[in-house]
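[audit] Reproducing an earlier prediction to check determinism. Same input, same settings, fresh worker. If the tokens differ from the archived copy the diff job will pick it up downstream; this log only records the rerun itself.
[audit] input (202 residues):
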Amino acid sequence: MVTISTATRQDVPRLADVLARAFHDDPEFLWALPDPADRPRRLRRIFGTMLRHEVLRHGGAELAEDEDGQRVLGAALWLPPGHWQEPALRQLLSLPGYLRGFGRRLGHGSALLSSCAKVHPREPHWYLYAIGVAPEHQGAGAGAALLRSGLARCDRDRLPAYLESSKLSNVPLYQHFGFQDTGRVDLPPDAPEVTTMWRPAR
């Protein structure tokens, strides 16, 4: 059994940890943060910054827990229409966290963000910023439960949804939930392929 709930500020350490473990082998972060020994600490900082400065204030963070509420299995970070790109002041406030997260590889992180921003749809939509399940719980339904919960909100709002998938193996899963492959992000030649995906309003 999986329980889905809206995350609060008190959940940030647990969510940052589970997302760091979920994305440890993600192609984007293998490219941006090549040191495997240092990657977990840096990913926790990056996801902690996302949560504190971008996602939580919009109520868009959801966590999946086991039926006893003892373990966080995974998390999904959604941004509502009109908030996929933060105002300049908000970006400045989050910059120290991203600096500590990416360190000397900040240029790689910036390249990812700016390239994704160039192709991001302007039509109002819910943006699935990140979704991940701890490696030991993958394949047990937590990711699907998180997706269903977020997409139910999209459907209540009668709005489309958008995401970028950096794992080609995840594309069929998203297609199963109604997303359509819409193209690729134009990244540096040595960067991984990132698929853009759109789910029409229902």
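[audit] rerun output stored. Observation attached for the diff report: Helices lie at 12-22, 27-32, 39-55, 88-102, 106-119, 142-157, 171-176.
[audit] end
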